[in-house]
Write a structure and sequence with these properties.
By secondary structure, the protein is mainly alpha-helical. The chain is built from 53 helices and 9 strands.
């Protein structure tokens, strides 16, 4: 290598820097030295940056080394620690040798390692300290700490958490949480670490704490990698007993994992064990309510709060009942050493160790525990009988039903899990995720159509109720002091980032209110916002859709909320885990530092020093961004006025330097996005590209067109097919919403008052009225009308009576009319058709679709004149071209209603396809016409099957109609197989429900308001129903198809079938709907 020794020496000693003329030589040297270096290597981009800095320093005659400003380094190692903080000791004494040994073992040992030691040996504390403070820099880490009794389904929780964490590390969108996805992610994440010249360590602590392995036969251990892939290391901890779960195959590497040597039980942990067991023994010897508290903690497994325990002890017959003060003292003294905070709800208590549960269970005995269990059940039954009021303990909503499931009380668990009022209370508290998880577990185990239908209805209603109100409403609620409602509405989005952002808004409003009560609420909500912010950090915000746009800088913003509400210790802890100098974090970090200057001056000073150093680097480095430096200096000066002069001097020096050395325009351009002058909407728009993928309707709640855009928006709606009256009504409604929000914001600035409260109530009432009612009500109405006598009348009234005169009410009434007509009850059909016509007359701005539905209903009721009148356009002349398709559809539907045999015969004999038929369905129609002519269709069917199989994902209705043809031709097995091949669950559910409807003999009707594909499907159903009526004897097949369809989002398509197979399911759904409508 042609490099003089003096040149090499001067470069390595920092006396000279590379010249552009011989850069290639220096690159050769770097590659050679890195090949022989023991430590981790830098990326080529890092070396390029360092060399350019050295050249710049040489050009300025500052020497060959770059300045001491922060330099680019390798990408920071990935760190994900689930529950590690719960086990982290304040001091880990005497473990230095074990920590060093574990680092070396992870680098050079077996891919599978196991730390096996007795209970109370300090395994969790040791591994928590390792994961938090001692993980090597050349290791990416994903750590999971299992906690006994804290999750109803530990394996599923592990699955979802690991899929989220590994997806984030691998740079993938988080997929479905199942075993297949997880195994693929192990490999992808390990490869990502290898690409960064690291290994990935998967650390799982407490396999023996996995209490869910015996419930469904799935253990966390069985979900660990069956074969370690390159770059992956696995470290688990457990006791010798119990052994590994039975679902871990004998060939799994867990059975032969290399044991971590030299681990000694901690003397400190032994002292804790002895103290806890002594305290437990003392409680067992107590009489009365003190022993009962231990008993309830032992039974509950989930977290019981201080108030819960007071109420439970009041249910006993004691000579003197405890007062809350007595219970509080016990919880924070003796019980406080036995129990610890529950992770989901920190103000609740659980026994702190598995051994304590076992010892308490043995000491209390079955008789005492049975008596306490009966009192716990009675306590739960009372709240259930009261309809789960606002005062319902969180334990009863979440943990108690899972206790029933884990103890084998399946019927009681099912009844609690299906209770829609309980689910609504959970949703009201911002825990829709818990409600949905409860329904998911029922779906996985239920084999009863009534249960599955109830689950599907509850899930649909909860999802439809999740409209997110604008944040102006949250701030207004904070101003008037309604913290409970503000919190509930703030937690309505599904994603944790938006929950955090909205809670922070409520905190700010409550803090500004200035009252003691508001301050207490603000402090609690700031802590809750922190929990959601930390959860959001575990997700890739650029890949997941978020309800709110400004989800950047969540941790610093939550820290600001904590500091502003008098919780500086929590704020400093949160800031310690944040990226202080990230462009999006700077402003919030500086604001937090300003709030911490009085309580934590040293910490706040370090934050501002670090920001200042980053600004200096950005101003001096050729790779830096001067605009970003100015932003940092401005933020620092605003946080601490004592630094104003020094930051001004730095800014002036940087400006002079820019005048002498104009920067590369390409290097400065990106800085404009971080400059203070950048509009907020521009900044937000660049931070969350996933927002663009959200459904367009999701933005409608808080936005409306400006007055000058109203006419343009009206024209868009007209082009989309709305009537002029309807288009203007929609625009006016949006404008009214926007004006109300502006008024609410102005009133909020003025403070609490009756006008602000009135504006809030008006907005919330309008939002409730605009909230989409269940779109499947027309199918429920159809099913109720088909149900056996005596079921329909009162239940249909409860469904229909609560509906205003809207398009949905018209659809419900016309669906009932068609069902009655199909059942041979024309007088009832006429009654409902007439009711639908009257509803249209009362509507302010009906669309063009509602009259067509009424025309069809009148036709099936035998009313020719009314049917033809309603099928004509309002202006009397049917439009041509595409605009006339709905009316041509309606004309055909009226013909089918008035004389189905003639209409069907005409469609089969006519050379032209029916109006609006999808071109891809011409093959299906040709087969039916060929069959009607008596010819063979095997070749046509084979060709159609090939086409449908090739388009399962792009045109799923091809397979649906093919399955229907197979069933019509007598091959039911092939029909079911074809439907089952559809990969999309919704499409598959529709196909299965379609088959079940046909095999059950449910009458078919054209869907005049559907899109082209579903209109085509409805026409083919009509043709097949009339030309190939089903044969009896398909009860088992129908039962299986319905059960499968009910587990998909197309569940409502099976409602008419349930009217024949399981009428009680309709009663359950109607009851759920009525509960959902209760105020």
């Amino acid at each position: 290598m042609p490099i003089a020794s003096s040149t090499l020496s001067n470069w390595l000693n920092g006396q000279t820097a590379p010249l552009k003329a011989n850069l290639s030589t220096y690159w050769d040297l770097i590659l050679y030295l890195e090949k022989h270096a023991e430590g981790p290597h830098r990326r080529r981009e890092e070396w390029k940056c360092l060399i350019s800095q050295a050249m710049a320093e040489r050009d300025r005659k500052h020497g060959g080394r770059p300045s001491n400003a922060p330099r680019p380094t390798r990408a920071a190692p990935f760190r994900f620690r689930h529950n590690a903080a719960m086990h982290l000791p304040q001091v880990l004494a005497g473990r230095e040798a074990e920590l060093d040994g574990l680092q070396g073992l992870i680098r050079s040992g077996s891919p599978y390692l196991a730390l096996i030691a007795p209970a109370w040996a300090g395994k969790s504390a040791f591994l928590a300290a390792f994961a938090t403070n001692h993980a090597p820099e050349d290791i990416d880490l994903v750590a999971y700490f299992i906690r006994r009794g804290h999750e109803p389904d530990p394996a599923q929780k592990f699955l979802s958490t690991m899929v989220t964490a590994l997806s984030k590390h691998a740079g993938r969108k988080s997929g479905q949480a199942d075993r297949t996805t997880l195994l693929a992610l192990y490999e992808a994440a390990a490869q990502k670490s290898l690409d960064r010249r690291r290994n990935l360590l998967l650390l799982v602590d407490g396999l023996d704490e996995d209490t869910g392995a015996g419930i469904d036969g799935i253990s966390i251990a069985s979900l660990l990698p069956p074969q370690p892939c390159p770059g992956l290391r696995v470290l688990v901890s457990r006791r010798w007993h119990p052994p590994l779960p039975g679902d871990v195959p004998m060939h799994h590497p867990l059975h032969t994992a290399e044991q971590v040597p030299g681990f000694r039980p901690s003397p400190h942990a032994a002292v804790l064990r002895s103290t806890a067991l002594n305290d437990l023994d003392a409680l067992l010897h107590e009489q009365g309510w003190k022993r009962e508290i231990l008993g309830f903690l032992t039974l509950a497994t989930g977290g019981l709060s201080h108030n819960d325990l007071v109420k439970l002890t009041d249910t006993g017959e004691h000579a003197s009942s405890p007062i809350p003060h007595d219970v509080g003292r016990l919880l924070h003294s003796v019980v406080g050493r036995v129990a610890g905070p529950e992770d989901l709800e920190p103000d609740t208590f659980v026994l702190a160790h598995a051994d304590l549960y076992d010892a308490a269970t043995r000491g209390l005995g079955s008789r005492v525990l049975t008596e306490l269990a009966q009192r716990l059940d009675a306590w739960a039954d009372q709240y259930r009988a009261d309809g789960w009021p606002e005062s319902t303990p969180g334990y009863l909503l979440h943990h108690y039903p899972e206790l029933m499931r884990s103890t084998g009380n399946h019927d009681r668990w099912t009844s609690f899990a299906l209770d829609h009022r309980r689910l609504l209370r959970l949703a009201d508290r911002g825990r829709s995720d818990v409600a949905t998880a409860s329904l998911d577990r029922l779906t996985q185990t239920a084999t009863d159509a009534r249960v599955l239908a109830s689950v599907a209805a509850s899930r649909s209603l909860l999802a439809g109720d999740s409209t997110v109100v604008p944040r102006e409403v949250l701030r207004a609620l904070g101003v008037v002091g309604d913290a409970a409602r503000a919190r509930s509405l703030a937690l309505s989005p599904a994603d944790p980032a938006s929950k955090a952002v909205r809670l922070i808004d409520v905190v700010q409003a409550l803090t500004a209110a200035g009252t003691r009560t508001a301050a207490d609420h603000a402090a609690a909500l700031a802590r809750e916002a922190t929990v959601w912010a930390e959860k959001a950090q575990q997700q890739d915000l650029t890949a997941l859709p978020t309800e709110e746009l400004d989800t950047a800088a969540l941790l610093p913003r939550a820290a600001v909320a904590l500091a502003a509400t008098g919780q500086p210790d929590l704020a400093t802890r949160l800031l310690a885990s944040a990226d202080i100098c990230s462009p999006e974090n700077v402003a919030a970090v500086a604001e937090a530092a300003a709030l911490l200057l009085e309580s934590h001056p040293s910490f706040a000073g370090r934050l501002l020093d670090e920001l200042t150093a980053e600004a200096d680097y950005q101003a001096q480095s050729p790779e830096g961004r001067p605009a970003f430096a100015r932003e940092i200096w401005t933020a620092v000066a605003g946080a601490d006025p004592r630094r104003t002069e020094s930051t001004r001097d730095r800014a002036e020096e940087a400006a002079q330097r820019l005048e002498r050395e104009p920067p590369d325009p390409l290097a400065v351009a990106p800085c404009s996005l971080t400059a203070p002058e950048a509009p907020e909407d521009v900044q937000r728009g660049t931070r969350n590209p996933a927002r663009a993928r959200r459904r367009p309707a999701a933005d409608a709640a808080g936005t409306a067109p400006q007055s000058e855009e109203s006419e343009s928006r009206s024209q868009e709606l007209l082009v989309a097919g709305e009537t002029p009256d309807r288009a203007h009504a929609l625009v006016a409604e949006a404008r009214e919403t926007e004006e109300l929000l502006h008024r609410m914001s102005r009133l909020s600035d003025l403070g609490d008052g009756p006008q602000l409260r009135q504006a809030i109530e008006q907005f919330l009432q309008n939002a409730a009225g605009q909230n989409a009612t269940a779109e499947w009500l027309h199918l429920l109405a159809h099913a109720l009308a088909c149900a056996p006598g005596g079921v329909e009348a009162d239940q249909f009234t409860s469904v229909e009576a609560a509906l205003p005169d809207t398009a949905l009410r018209v659809k419900v009434l016309t669906s009932a009319a068609l069902a009655h007509a199909g059942a041979g009850r024309p007088s009832e059909a006429l009654t409902y058709a007439t009711g639908a016509a009257e509803a249209i007359r009362r509507m302010k701005a009906p669309t063009r679709h509602e009259p067509l539905l009424v025309a069809q209903a009148f036709a099936h009721a035998g009313q020719t004149e009314e049917a033809e009148q309603w099928a004509r356009p309002a202006h009397g002349r049917r439009p041509t071209g595409k605009a006339g398709i709905p009316y041509r559809r309606a004309a055909l539907a009226v013909q089918i209603g008035l004389d189905p045999q003639t209409a069907v015969a005409r469609m089969l004999s006519d050379d032209l396809p029916p109006p609006g038929l999808s071109p891809s369905a011409t093959g299906h129609l040709r087969i039916l016409r060929t069959r009607a002519a008596g010819a063979r269709t095997e070749a046509q069917l084979a060709s159609l099957e090939t086409t449908a199989r090739a388009r399962l994902e792009t045109e799923p209705l091809l397979a649906t109609t093919l399955a229907l043809l197979h069933a019509a031709l007598g091959d039911t097995d092939r029909a079911c197989h074809t439907a089952a091949q559809l990969p999309d669950p919704a499409a598959r559910g529709l196909a299965q429900a379609t088959l079940a409807s046909y095999l059950t003999g449910i009458p078919a009707f054209p869907d005049v308001t559907a899109n082209e594909s579903h209109w085509t499907l409805s026409l083919l159903k009509v043709l097949i129903h009339h030309t190939h009526p089903p044969q009896p004897g398909h009860d088992t097949t129908v039962h299986d198809l319905v059960l499968q369809a009910l587990t998909t989002s197309s569940w409502h398509q099976a409602l008419p079938v349930l009217s024949r197979t399981t009428p009680t399911a309709l009663t359950t759904i109607t009851s759920t709907l009525n509960q959902h409508r209760e105020p």
